[in-house]
Amino acid sequence: MIHLSTNYSRRIAEATATVFGESPLTVAVQHACQRYEKDIENIESGRGIGALLIAIVGAKGQGKTWAAKQFVRDETIKAMLRSGDLTDDATVRLVWIGPVAPEGLDLDSEIYIPCQASQLAHVGQPYVILDTPGLTDADQRAAKLAKEALSLAPIKLLVIARDQIRAAANLTIAHQIDGAVCIPIISSVEPDELAGGSLESQLGDDVRGLREQLEIMAPRSQLTDEIRVPDFEISGNEAASSQVFLSGILDRLNQLGVTKLTLRNARELRVQSTNERLQSDVAGLIAAELPQLSEAVDELNHETAQLPQRVLASLLGSEEVLETGVRLRLRARLVTDTALLWFPYRTVLSTLNLTQGAWDRVMLALSGSVPSLFGALTSWAQNLRQSRGFSNRVQDGVRQHAQQQVEERLRPLCDRFHQAVLKLRPREERSVQREDSTTMRLLGIDELQTRSQAIFDRAIKSHATPLWLTQVLALVGVTLFWALMSAPIIVVYREYFMTSWQVFNGGNPQLDNFPQPTAGLFVTSLLLALLPLAIYCMLVLTWILSRSKVRRIVGGIIVEHEKSMEELRAAKVIQLQFDDELLQQAEFLLNLRK
Amino acid sequence: MSLTTTDEPWRAIANLICDDGEMSALVQRFPAANRRISLLNALQSSEVAVDETQLQAGRDIQSSLSGLTGQLAVFESISRCPILAITGMLNAGKSSLLATYLSPVNRSRVLRGLGNSAGTHRFVLWLPSVWQREPELLSTLIGFLSSVFGHPPELLSNEPAEAALQYNGLILQNELMVTDHKTVDPTHDSGTKARSTRAVDPLGVPLIAYDDGLNALKLGLADCPDIQTGYTANAGFSGEALAAHRRTHLLRIGRICSAFIVVSKMSSLHDDSLLQVLSTLRDAIPGVPRLLAVNKIKARYAPETVYQETRGLIDRFAIRSVFAAYDYRSSLAETRIPPPPPKLVVKGGESLPIYFEVGPKAEHETKNNELHYLHELGDQLDPGTLARESSRSLVMQLKSKSLAAIEWLETNRRLRDEQVRDSWQTISEACLEFMSERDPQGRVVGLRLQASPAIISQMSDSLHRTAPMWMRFSLKIDRTARQLQQAVANSASRFKILQTASDTVSQFSQRFRRGEGATVVTPEKLADTLRNFDRHDALGHVTKETLTAGCAAALTRFAAEDRTMLDDQELDAWSTQVWGAMSLKDKLWKGTQPLAMVMAPLLAAILIPIDAGGTAVLVFASTKELLAAAGIAALSTPFVTGKETLSIVQRETPWRQLGDLFAVTCDSLGLPRPIADELPLSKCHGQARKLANSQLDVKLTIQTPAQYVWEVDAEILKSLQLSIRHLVPAS
């Protein structure tokens, strides 16, 4: 892995490596990042030259070095700058000319020619000229140098030969120097074309066309009027061409009014365009893989967006189960609300409740943890064995169940996503086992549970049998029981008292005279009394827990829950915590194309 | 030299490549269908090509090959009209050079100049006017042009102004030619066609013009657009993309050209774009003469210097000769410009570049005042030699393309093998996924059994046989239950009866379906797992429906045909141990169960397929899991002692089942079965182990197999290679 110092390029390189592995594509992106870093460094530091830096750029053989030469007055220095069509004349190194040397001069690819400010054409402030090789040089090394140098100076002289105005190379260069101040130099213009008439207007059209294209390619650049330099090879008058060039340059620089502020602005613009270039370069590099990647990401995102709702819906469960829960609570409440006084009505009621509760418990156990939303209902089971364990299970259940649901639904999607992305990697890297960097959790379940309990309690409370009615029902039940049960008891007591009376009044009653009821009698009367009571209790329960009433309560609870879930989801209390590194990196790469 | 002598070798190759009959080069090996197709068809067949990239590469080779064979076939007629292409750098003077060959009257129809409005943005063919009188030749030429560009050429207007517009990229509807060399009558042309041609890229519609001046030259000249232009008024795109687009078109026109003149300015000699043009020509159209014309030379450079500058290019790109023209616009150059060639007719006031040969040889010649002018092209290139050289180039291209085709086949075979191997690996991993028992770290530690009725009854029979005498009665009841189940399975109203089946059984089948204690495999699940394990997209082209259908067929067939059994003796030893290890209390408890709980999971395992509504469902469970599900493992703590025997019992059987399942899945999806050496590996206990070779017969039922395997007929390949080797281009 190469070393990258800026956050932006590092982020891009990392994302590419994560998604595409060690593929040629990653290497290409890393190179783009390295280029970017070099550009940024060039822009930020400008090689430590405090003075104004003017770079002369362009395609091969446009007359860049000739232009550089025109700034210099010193003849010996002029002689060092060779310009012409021969191989030996070609500029293959970066040439710095000026009073200040650049930092970190690389002698293999750069030359610094010291030149006093007085020996340079006067532009109003000290400056350094940078002459660069042709961008289209067949010498790859020189072309590369030229490319790298494009980011260097805030002011660029873009030299274009008249007959190369529509060449693609100019547009490439313009794109690379976006943000900088750009002075187009049209060199080798036939003298006839400067003499007015149709030829000049044709040149004007061509230049207009060029400017339009340059503006498209470098929208941030400040593009000055071009300078048309006559072809001295045709006219034979080099001095005149030089004069036109120099005065043109001075004019343009004056017009620009090159101040610190303009330069700073230019720097910001250049950084901005460099960022964009990296972005579009990388997007271009990965363009071939983007459709698959975006498909995979979109699918995963689509599914994860739906997930919380689906999981919550599954938590609510079926109405039947909810009905059971409601019935349980209503019944339990009825029992607790009935005072102990109402014996044996309460006993029978709770016995019925218990047996029924046991069945309900089985149902609850089978149906997963759905009713556990209503943690409060566990109170009904307090007097049952293992109630503590059961209630714990029920309470933890909802979280576990939600988590399990999330895992179960998300894991395959996530795996499929990883699988799809892995296929973008080189063959040998596909089998790499991914480290489990994915966290998936549904947050806000506790809050939902609390609210759920409140909703449930509220619903039960509002629909519970009123206390007075409970007592009336109990009174009727107890009356019913004692009406049937009391007769034999009264008879027995009466006989008992009468015999006792006789004893105290001096009578002579025998032991036989005391009532000697058989156990059978009591059992029979108990059973006879209990049976109607049980039936009565059943009726009471049936009435209290009437189907329509339970349904109404359940309907209300469900509506309230949906409302509450929607609220929680909107308030982002319930949300899917899903961090997948690969997904993040893939999304980052996808965003590059925007 | 007669062209017919070169006929035979390339025809032999063409026959070998194109033959679609008995002698065709490719044979379908899987599914074995005795189908054969020609090499040419194979290159563009999606059955043969392993993926889209390969298919595209194959199609490219195919179109070049069929183009070349076609070209060689029509070559005899075209060879009489050699065409020379003038190409080169932006504003280097291509059209100006071309104009020098034309009669003065037609020069005004050639668009020249530096401005954007004077750019040549079409291919323009200037042909000797005598060719017009040979309609057959012309129609062959135009037909060929149409096939190369995909569009009939257009006649250049006689009006200079209109011609200039055409040069600049305008297509004139009424000038479009058809193969029988008549202009298209716009009134007969339907409106839709006229509209559609408007959307045609002008670069793809060459222009044709005739000139008397070329009659003596006996050559056609093609004026080419440069490849540097980054934007034009009517191009849809700009920048490097446009330049690249133009380069590809240069290759098209190159196919009808017998020689090239590359025009460059002196200052562009070391420009990358010139190198691009030259390398494109050298690589794509080898063996034809290439001349370099250097234009607009400044007076200060002597001819020798110019030659010196071009030395590198001459050596690198096999340039036959270099011509120089001094910049006639410059007054300084006047002394350098030689007198115009005698045959060049110059109208008054017209300036034309005068090219003369430079070089060591030319130096010698100049001493004798004998200049070699580029204008006297006929001296340089006589049509007979050009024809020979063209034919040579075509034969060389045919050779290289045939070799490329053979290489493509080889690559394709390698990739196909790889893909088939990947498919096998995918299937074996997916099958193993269901059958493997894993430790908490996810490593495979053993295999589950497919709880097939055969194995289940074998196990329960063994448990019966070895049970204590007093328990047998209660176990017998279970056997009855099992028999009932068999009846249930066969009856139409099984669901109804099933609902009344014992609670225990349905409880277990529910547990199994939830994946506790056993794995239930449905076709959808198998298809999903296959997709998940398909790391290299070997089955990526199989649609979901086909895959699921194939999986269903595989599971059905496996359930029906897999006859893998456990070893009876070993099984008995194990069941004895199971009973022996069980405490008396447990035995009593089990023995007194009304329906022996022991057998419930076994029964449940076979019930699942019926319960799930089809036979295409398999249940994989280890014996341990089945017993654990029954609670035996929990009840009999020392059960662990039976573990070793257990692993012996089911040591090999599941591997045989895995081999069978793998084989039937291969068959159902339409994949060849691997031979013993190619069987995929599976990891168990950290060791790689080869799948067992299945004894099941190969049965292919699928309509579109997942993989086709085509093989090159070795004999034909050999003779093709031999013919290619013997293909010596005529010198």
Q: Residue ranges of chain B: pLDDT <50 for 5 or more in a row?
A: 1-6, 180-198, 491-503, 592-597, 630-642
Mean pLDDT of chain B: 78
Task: Provide the residue-averaged pLDDT of chain A.
Answer: 82
The count of strands of chain B amounts to: 19
Distance between the termini of chain A: 27 Å
Give the radius of gyration of chain A. 47 Å
Shape of chain A: rod-shaped
Total strand segments of chain A: 10
What is the molecular shape of chain B?
elongated
Key traits:
heterodimer, A: about 600 residues, alpha/beta, eight-stranded mixed sheet, two-stranded antiparallel ribbon, 19 helices, B: about 725 residues, nine-stranded mixed sheet, three-stranded antiparallel sheet, 29 helices, disordered N terminus
Descriptive overview:
- The complex is a heterodimer of chains A (594) and B (731).
- In chain A, 61% of the residues lie in helices and 9% in strands.
- Chain A contains 19 helices and 10 strands.
- In chain A, the strands form 2 sheets. In chain A, strands 1, 2, 3, 4, 5, 6, 7 and 8 form an 8-stranded mixed β-sheet that branches. Chain A has a two-stranded antiparallel sheet with strand order 9-10.
- In chain A, α2 (24-45) packs antiparallel against α10.
- The two termini of chain A are 27 Å apart.
- Mean pLDDT of chain A is 82; it is low at 359-391.
- With 731 residues, chain B is an alpha/beta fold.
- In chain B, a hairpin with a 5-residue loop joins β1 (26-30) and β2.
- In chain B, α21 (544-561) packs across α28 (653-669).
- The termini of chain B are close together.
